[in-house]
Amino acid sequence: MKKRTVAALSMMGVACIMFAVPYFNGMGCNYEMTLNAGSAHYEGVCRWGVLHMVETDTQTGSRWVVSARQLSFMNQIIYLVHTRHQLNTGDKQSSLNTYNQQQRGFTVFNYSWRAVSGNEIVIFQTSPHHEVLKAKVDGYIDSWDSLFDNKKNYMGNHQ
Q1: Alpha carbons 28 and 19: distance in angstroms, whole number
Q2: What is the CATH code of the structural domain delimited by 2-157?
Q3: For 89-110, what is each residue's pLDDT tens digit?
Q4: All structural domains of the chain with their residue ranges
Q5: CB–CB of 70/79 below 8 Å?
Q6: Are strands 76-88 and 63-73 parallel, antiparallel or unpaired?
Q7: Which of 107, 141, 100 is nearest to 122 (CA)?
Q8: The whole model's pTM is what?
């Protein structure tokens, strides 16, 4: 019985650490991001672990605000999307409207990112489909990035 208790407490401790590190690291976000993907334009702000992204379909005028909690570990970002709010329906139905209406509930997204130059990064996405996106980021993605300035260090080592 004693071994099981120790094992259970150890596993709970490891699980707490595995969640706490990305949670507190993600709370260090302090950035503005812009990117384009097909007919969609995205502008986002992340502060203290909370991301607010304005998504605009440039062809129809449809516009949404998506809010998420950011978790981050190394060059992995997990967004726990909790709110989607439509600002403008646009002049016709768009794939952006359809997607956001289908994903109304709590959603989890995982991305990987790498610095490519100054304030530009590439984002590797697997959902809703595989894609590599180039984004402009002003600021720090997470606490680790602010402490070690990964974007600047990367460029200094790869020019």
Answers
A1: 15
A2: 2.40.128
A3: 777 777 777 777 777 778 888 9
A4: 2-157
A5: yes
A6: antiparallel
A7: 141
A8: 0.81
